[in-house]
Design brief:
134 residues, mainly beta, SH3 type barrels, 7% helix
Length: 134
């Protein structure tokens, strides 16, 4: 089983936080969000949890849900796609609503040997990139 890591988008302060005690934001086993050790119902709307895919890009950066990545493959032209959890795994969402699998059930299934990824931003900090993808 891979290590569970996450980062968090703060919709109020418009900044990315690293999940865990280091950044004063934690998520319990039931998915409840605690900020500065305190639970408040409004935190569930304020903070967006973005899970780590278990993959790294070609520069060694961890790839998280919501990242926008350049995807290179011998089977496809280089494209820009958004990392998204769909059904039971991480996928790259294509503009035509098709998906390229990255992992299944949170576990890598050999896809990391087919594609090379490079993070170019994320949907929260660089929303203009989303317009370029469409």
């Amino acid at each position: 089983m891979r290590e569970m890591k996450y980062r968090v988008w703060d919709t109020v302060e418009k900044r990315m936080l690293i999940g865990g005690a280091d950044d004063c934001i934690t998520v319990d086993m039931e998915g409840l969000i605690y900020y500065l050790g305190e639970f408040r119902p409004e935190y569930q709307e304020r903070f967006v949890i973005l899970l780590w895919t278990g993959l790294k890009d070609k520069k060694g950066w961890q790839i998280f849900e919501g990242d926008i990545v350049n995807v290179e493959s011998t089977q496809l032209n280089t494209t820009q796609e958004v990392v998204k959890w769909v059904d039971s795994g991480f996928n790259l969402k294509k503009e035509d609503m098709q998906y390229i699998p990255m992992s299944m059930g949170g576990e890598l299934r050999g896809y990391e040997n087919i594609y090379t990824y490079e993070i170019i931003g994320n949907i929260y900090e660089k929303p203009k990139l989303m317009k370029e993808i469409k």
